[in-house]
Amino acid sequence: MVSFSSLAVFGLAVVSRVSATILQNGQVRETNFPDTRIDPAAHSFRTYPADAAEISYKGRWDSNYVSWWSAPGIKFGYTGQTVAVSFGNLTDNGVLVGYRIGGLDWIFTNITAGATHLLVSPETPGSSETGPVNPWTFEMRVTNWAYGVQIEAVHVAAGEKLIKLPDFGRRIEVIGDSLASGMYTTYEGLSSWAYGLGAGLGNTEYSVTAYPGICAADQNCWGNPHGQVHQWFYTSDTSGRAAAMYGDNPEPWDFKKHPAADIVVINIGTNDQNQANNVSTDAYIDALTKIIQGVHGKWPKAQVVVMSLWLGFYQSGNTYLPNSPDGWVKEIYNMVKWFNSDAYLRNPTIYDGVTRKTSRTGKKAKPFVHYFNTSGIMQHNDIGPQWHPTDVGAIKVASHLQQFIRMTFDWDLYATGPEVFHETLYWNDQSGY
Ligand SMILES: *[C@@H]1O[C@H](CO)[C@@H](O)[C@H](O)[C@H]1NC(C)=O
Ligand SMILES: *[C@@H]1O[C@H](CO)[C@@H](O)[C@H](O)[C@H]1NC(C)=O
Ligand SMILES: *[C@@H]1O[C@H](CO)[C@@H](O)[C@H](O)[C@H]1NC(C)=O
Ligand SMILES: *[C@@H]1O[C@H](CO)[C@@H](O)[C@H](O)[C@H]1NC(C)=O
Question: Which interval of the chain is the signal sequence (predicted)?
């Protein structure tokens, strides 16, 4: 019923162009994305390699500067009115990226593998503004989870420079499946509730380790060879792209080299619950428990928010009702209660991706697992025909999560203006009909 993975296997030798028509209520959505490719030889650039300290990588990137999972990105400050990026040949040809200056709206463009793209020029909206965002910032995010880019170099005009931007002081991680990765929303990762949560909190670094079709349990689900209880510990996702690049030897994610998340939001289990994947309740709860213990082991201070599952709606007589109201709701809630029990907190356990061990601290641990009740947030028309949140549904989930996080952890909402979701401005300026 849910989350068919759109796995596309790319032979590295065969250059295939990734491209799909964006639809809106079944109709082709007009795109007109600018073609930003240039011949770098015709420009006078100052060039920074992919490993330049000035370039910040958001989300998960591997040692070849190849992006993975949903909405990974780069960000940096710059001077002048020129920013170009050269993409390596491990880029999926044609992949759609969104980029923006400061807090302005996203601009989209298709990237060609091995090409250089001019993303900021004097014609780019915002490029002649001098503030208030200073230094001037450039941010780019990959829209699709299965496709990626490889950064080869970043260029500014000769005589200009990149500026390293300090990370924001707080950090959020979303662990999930297609529901978090933005499947079937307009701009996929950049329209997902996971992105909306991170961007909407403002002044927050965010990383979305979510992939369509993936289970919590470590087994093949819809063609994903592993579940999150395994894959979350790795840099790359469960795509055919990752299998083609790494086979069975993906790079472990270096938790020591990257700062810990403060809050980890987990929304996983819809694929486990699908009978096609044959995951028992015990196997699911065991995997979800291990994911939380894995987070606790890698990031001992992180607070974990576990979302209850939802499964869409159906018409029942003269109203709409939620599908399968149980949805492991009781089991997930009981698991959260168990994590908060005295017995558990006196003897907490951590998981390193392979083995579990008791982390005896000598004193009682502080509770760190929270329950986010999704019931009543989305209604029947917030779920599209493919069983995933619509753009509006995603915005609702993101907004409620933001408020929950504000109230539970006393986090201010810092984003007070910058566009969060591209092309969701539906308006009416005619009255009296
Ligand atoms: C860019 O990518 C989008 C999404 O895949 C696609 O709809 C569009 O046709 C692509 N445009 C070009 C020029 O390839
Ligand atoms: C990809 O790029 C690297 C580095 O520029 C180059 O050595 C390699 O030959 C290229 N591979 C292909 C298949 O074009
Ligand atoms: C589902 O799992 C059960 C218990 O692990 C097993 O006995 C059964 O053969 C499985 N069914 C399928 C279709 O894989
Ligand atoms: C979740 O919310 C629904 C709707 O408000 C409510 O009926 C249910 O009791 C809540 N679950 C928990 C565990 O609080």
Answer: 1-20
* Cis amide prior to 49 (ω within 30 degrees): no
Report the nearest atom of ligand 1 relative to the CA of 22. 7
Q: Would you say the CB of residue 403 lies under 6 angstroms from ligand 2?
A: no
Q: Is 89 in the pocket of ligand 2 (CB under 6 A)?
A: yes
Cα separations in angstroms, 7 against 194, 207, 340: 21, 21, 38
Q: Is the pTM of this model over 0.85?
A: yes
Residue of the CA atom closest to atom 5 of ligand 2 = 88
How many CA atoms lie less than 13 Å away from 404 in the CB half-sphere? 20
Under 8 Å CB-to-CB from 336, ≥6 apart: which residues?
306, 369, 370, 371
Question: What integer best gives the mean pLDDT of the chain?
Answer: 93
Class of domain 36-163 (CATH, top level): mainly beta
Cβ-contact 324, 275 below 8 angstroms: no
List the chain domain ranges. Answer: 36-163, 171-409
pLDDT (tens digit, 9 = 90+) per residue, 125-138? 999 999 999 999 99
Q: Which residues lie with the beta carbon below 6 Å from any ligand 1 atom? A: 19-22, 31, 33, 94, 96, 110
Q: What are the pLDDT digits (tens) for 341-361?
A: 999 999 999 999 999 998 776
Distance 88 CA to ligand 2 centre (A): 8
* Class of CATH domain 171-409: alpha beta
